[in-house]
């Protein structure tokens, strides 16, 4: 599950990010309200944690903007101002849940998890490319009649590639999205995982789907 945390207070954002990562979520952080739309347009999230008081554009306005654009990602509003009016306003604007600050981190994690499940009910959970299918709920992939198990990391790698079919994904982008590193570990980590994944999804099948773009990265597509 990939979660976007929109929170301008850096300490709080980092605290939330670490707690969610410890629970196995992939987490992106945004510090400004006016950055959210671009971030959400570039990456698909399963849930958004949205603070109300933000620089650039406040959380309620961000929320209205997303809903106007038909972006239906579940949103958990977060605010120091826990007044009833604002909560009602938030829910009317299309929020799925509301959590007043200060919060207990375990509760926040539980609510985010619940939101992700809710989102999963309403949208397709199977990604497809040619005869390759990835069930994002069961964490299982299938090519033709063959079902194969993936490790958590292989799953995230395949999910990332399948969400951007035909798009070249650089090694650095993969490291950021699949490993959550914001630095290049300077190893052949990505290549090793790609090789392993390729053995599962491409070996013995035609056409090959996982292609190397020399010097840049990888792309998942039907034609070479
Ligand atoms: Ca704030």
List the helices and strands and how they pair.
Blueprint: E1 2-6, H1 10-22, E2 26-30, H2 36-42, E3 47-51, H3 59-68, E4 75-79, H4 84-92, E5 97-100, H5 105-122, E6 126-129, E7 132-135, E8 140-143, E9 146-149, H6 152-162, E10 169-170, H7 171-178, H8 189-201, E11 210-213, E12 217-220
Parallel strand pairs: 1-2, 1-3, 3-4, 4-5
Antiparallel strand pairs: 6-7, 7-8, 8-9, 10-12, 11-12
Helix pairs in contact: 6-8
Which structural class best describes the helix and strand composition? alpha/beta
The first-to-last residue Cα distance is 30 Å
Percent helix, as a range, is: 25-40%
Second rung of CATH, namely the architecture of the largest domain: 3-Layer(aba) Sandwich
Strand order of the largest sheet: 2-1-3-4-5
Reading the helices and strands in chain order gives EHEHEHEHEHEEEEHEHHEE
Number of helices: 8
Major sheet summary line: 5 strands, parallel
Low-confidence stretches: none
Bound molecules: calcium ion
Shape: elongated
* CATH fold naming of the largest domain: Rossmann fold
Query: What's the CATH C level of the largest domain?
Result: Alpha Beta
Radius of gyration: 19 Å
Strand content: 15-25%
What's the pLDDT, averaged over the residues? 88
Query: Would you report the number of β strands?
Result: 12
The CATH superfamily of the largest domain turns out to be: Response regulator
Number of domains: 2
């Amino acid at each position: 599950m990939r979660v976007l945390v929109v929170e301008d207070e850096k300490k709080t954002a980092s605290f939330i990010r670490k707690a969610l990562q410890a629970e196995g979520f992939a987490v992106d952080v945004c510090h400004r309200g006016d950055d959210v739309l671009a971030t959400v347009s570039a990456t698909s999230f399963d849930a958004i944690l949205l603070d109300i008081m933000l620089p650039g554009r406040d959380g309620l306005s961000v929320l209205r903007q997303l809903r106007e654009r038909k972006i239906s990602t579940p949103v958990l509003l977060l605010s120091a101002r826990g007044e009833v009016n604002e909560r009602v306003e938030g829910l009317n604007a299309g929020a799925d849940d509301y959590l007043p600050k200060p919060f207990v981190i375990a509760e926040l994690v539980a609510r985010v998890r619940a939101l992700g499940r809710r989102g999963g009910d309403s949208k397709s959970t199977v990604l497809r490319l040619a005869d390759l299918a990835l069930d994002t709920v069961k964490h299982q992939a299938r090519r033709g009649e063959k079902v194969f198990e993936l490790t958590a990391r292989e799953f995230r790698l395949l999910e990332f590639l399948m969400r951007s079919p035909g798009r070249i994904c650089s090694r650095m982008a993969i490291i950021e999205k699949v490993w959550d590193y914001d630095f290049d570990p300077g190893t052949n980590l990505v290549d090793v995982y790609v090789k392993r994944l390729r053995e599962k999804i491409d070996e013995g099948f035609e056409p090959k789907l996982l292609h190397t773009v020399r010097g840049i990265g990888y792309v998942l597509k039907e034609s070479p």
